[in-house]
């Protein structure tokens, strides 16, 4: 077999991409991968299901989408019930962030109903299957061979595994990186992955186990992990990556510590900047001084925004913001409940993104209404500019997640100079310098998820510190509650949490950092693929 000697041409497989179709962290993370790679001179092609975006005139214009006239395939999948299920697939080609963009679409009503569904994860299992089929047909039609395949989460993991095996059958050991941004626990019978449905042929191929590559059948590998997609793709990949050391350890605890030699951590990064945030603040409020921008938001701006929301801002001086999907794992209820442990002039803006969990949404509405005048709960996504405006104006940003592999919002907030208070779960502690431990370089705080009193106390003290930074009103420091904050003011009374945040992000979580990480990850994958190529049949 032939393995690439260098990595130049990258295929990025994903269900989300910021600027195309995205619900949050995954789309932003993949977009930043691509931006960093393009900036370093790599050739990147992004493959995605269309999610119906090619039907939007705004998307067609912005992404320069054009129908691929010479690509179209109609065939069938064989169901477990023995029936044939026909599909017809086509493609649109465009560009974004200096990379080529390929969107697979339906050419008939039944196929389009699935792969062109606007909601990214509706029909997710079927979208993933058709996406795999489309990629296979694309390779068969154009005979293109990349230098590396990088799949992101289970929805594109099956497609990545299929391509890896397909190329191996043609004599190519193409490096395959699988990034788990969020474990899915999706499990299916072998039939789902097989050539009858997603397209993976049950043929002898090379799989790395313990300390060497061995020949085995995909069905044997699949059945050995009881059809768990994440586990299967982890075994098939040359490198298993994630976005924090904590999350990699969690994954290894589930799938086996013996996978550790082929793991890699690619911390997420951000391209948010304080300069852009200042420009946004000035355009919306005519001011860039945080305390004045904050007062404008609290007094009139937030209550008047024309988005679906509940609650109100009353007699507020401090603004705390939290943002995320409306799901229990994001802990938005914790953000509202900690108001009971803070002074009455501290208010919270909850920027929620609905995902269909109506029960939890109704629970949040009840919590917000019980604290009317101190919380506004947004029940539809706000534009990213407004998210940046809220964070820039805030005294603090909180990430009270019950489960979080990394936490993009944490580094995005700090990039705008707003300290974060994160729960001590998952990869969140890796995104912040705890001021309780480092009184000179601290950027926020890490608190136990189940201690609402301590959470409220910490949020209030950091809000007071940033209010002092913004206004130079020393009288407010008498409201400090915690012993660590009182000790901090004795040791380092001139601490500038906001500047610390920006320095921390600039040093660890920028495009140049992730470009170096990706290059190292891809080289590791190339070496594993090289040894896979040397494994005799």
From TrEMBL:
Coiled coil: none
InterPro entries named in the record: Glyco_trans_1, Starch_synth_cat_dom
SUPFAM superfamilies in UniProt: UDP-Glycosyltransferase/glycogen phosphorylase
Principal EC category: transferase
Domain of life where this protein originates: Archaea
UniProt GO molecular function: alpha-1,4-glucan glucosyltransferase (ADP-glucose donor) activity
Domain Starch synthase catalytic: 9-256
EC number: 2.4.1.21
Domain Glycosyl transferase family: 319-443
PANTHER family: ALPHA AMYLASE DOMAIN-CONTAINING PROTEIN, GRANULE-BOUND STARCH SYNTHASE 1, CHLOROPLASTIC/AMYLOPLASTIC
Protein name per the record: Starch synthase
Origin species: Ignisphaera aggregans (strain DSM 17230 / JCM 13409 / AQ1.S1)
């Amino acid at each position: 077999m032939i393995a690439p000697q260098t990595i130049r041409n990258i295929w990025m497989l994903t269900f989300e991409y910021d600027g195309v179709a995205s619900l949050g962290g995954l789309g932003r993370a993949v977009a930043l991968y691509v931006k960093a790679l393009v900036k370093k001179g790599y050739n990147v092609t992004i493959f995605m299901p269309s999610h119906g975006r090619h039907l939007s005139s705004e998307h067609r214009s912005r992404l320069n989408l054009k129908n691929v006239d010479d690509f179209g395939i109609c065939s069938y999948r064989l169901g477990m019930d023995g029936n044939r299920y026909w599909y017809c697939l086509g493609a649109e080609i465009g560009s974004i962030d200096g990379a080529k963009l390929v969107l697979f679409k339906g050419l008939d009503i039944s196929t389009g109903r699935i792969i062109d569904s606007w909601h990214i994860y509706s029909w997710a299992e079927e979208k993933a299957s058709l996406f795999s089929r489309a990629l296979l047909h694309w390779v068969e039609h154009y005979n293109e061979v990349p230098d590396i395949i990088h799949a992101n989460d289970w929805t594109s993991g099956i497609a990545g595994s299929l391509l890896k095996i397909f190329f191996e059958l043609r004599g190519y050991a193409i490096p395959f990186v699988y990034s788990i941004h969020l474990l899915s626990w999706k499990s299916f019978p072998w039939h789902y992955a097989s050539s009858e449905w997603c397209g993976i042929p049950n043929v002898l191929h090379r799989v790395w186990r313990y300390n060497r590559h061995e020949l085995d059948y995909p069905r044997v590998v699949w059945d050995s992990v009881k059809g768990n997609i994440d586990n299967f793709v982890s075994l098939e990949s040359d490198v298993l990556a994630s976005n924090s050391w904590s999350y990699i350890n969690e994954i290894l605890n589930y799938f086996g510590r013996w996978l550790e030699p082929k793991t890699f951590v690619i911390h997420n990064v951000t391209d948010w900047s304080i300069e852009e945030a200042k420009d946004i603040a000035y355009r919306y409020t005519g001011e860039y001084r945080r305390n004045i921008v904050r007062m404008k938001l609290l007094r009139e701006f937030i209550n008047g925004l024309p988005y679906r929301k509940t609650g109100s801002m009353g007699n507020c001086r401090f603004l705390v913001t939290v943002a995320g999907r409306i799901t229990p794992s994001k802990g938005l209820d914790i953000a509202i409940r900690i108001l009971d442990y803070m002074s009455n002039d501290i208010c919270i803006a909850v920027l929620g993104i609905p995902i269909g969990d109506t029960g939890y949404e109704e629970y949040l509405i009840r919590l917000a209404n019980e604290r009317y005048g101190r919380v506004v709960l947004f029940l539809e996504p706000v534009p990213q500019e407004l998210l940046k405006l809220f964070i820039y104006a805030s005294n603090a940003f909180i990430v009270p997640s019950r489960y979080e592999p990394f936490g993009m919002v944490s580094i995005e907030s700090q990039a705008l100079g707003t300290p974060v208070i994160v729960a001590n779960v998952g990869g969140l502690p890796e995104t912040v310098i705890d001021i309780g431990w480092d009184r000179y370089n601290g950027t926020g705080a890490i608190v136990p998820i189940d201690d609402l009193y301590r959470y409220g106390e910490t949020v209030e003290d950091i809000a007071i510190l940033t209010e002092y930074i913004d206004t130079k009103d020393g009288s407010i420091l008498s409201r400090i509650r915690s012993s660590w904050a009182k000790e901090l003011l004795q040791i380092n009374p001139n601490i500038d949490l906001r500047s610390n945040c920006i320095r921390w992000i600039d040093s660890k979580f920028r495009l140049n950092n992730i470009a170096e990480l990706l290059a190292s990850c891809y080289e590791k994958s190339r070496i594993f693929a090289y040894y896979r190529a040397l494994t005799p049949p």
